């Protein structure tokens, strides 16, 4: 079977590139990236040298490669294929002080980290889930920081959380990013998402989806079609509404309104 590569640049803040690939025989020469590389190997095992020290991936862990540090990559078993999913995240995703720690210990044996990365890839498959992908990229940062011995400031900021909630409510029908909201509120995007989650017990994108489903319910009961309800409640399209509606209420909009 030939090598298979699919790469794209999603319209999601902090995500520079996404790569899904399956290699039969390919071996990467030593190279660097200007981004943080978040690697999941779903099939096979990859051996790599990072800053002249050998490491090996694990299917139960995430590999985090820092920017500007040379690394290579090859199948741990000669002639055995490997399949991987990679996120290339902007250098500012983590502080520069985290580079040395990531170079020393690039493997993250944390099921929450693995689940978050998997969720990001799933969200990136649908442009309608861009906000969910962005929020999870920010949450992943907080999950990774303790591993890199760079603690996150967890000070409560409820007024800021309330301001974000008001902004989300006011722009429910619009497509926007946490980065844009952070600029409007003069806050750092990671801090903004974290404060909202700490205050309300729900991530910003989950709050938005819930509010949109509520609005769609009222529109459906007022006689609007599913397509009209989707458009007027801020969903990307009817299929986007149907997916979240079923996940929330256990039925499709059509069944709900019948």
UniProtKB/TrEMBL annotation:
Domain of life: Bacteria
SUPFAM superfamilies cross-referenced by the UniProt entry: Homeodomain-like (SSF46689), Regulatory protein AraC (SSF51215)
Domain HTH araC/xylS-type residue range list: 162-258
Keywords: DNA-binding, Transcription, Transcription regulation
One Pfam short name: AraC_binding
GO molecular function: DNA-binding transcription factor activity; sequence-specific DNA binding
Protein name: AraC-like DNA-binding protein
Native species: Brevibacterium marinum
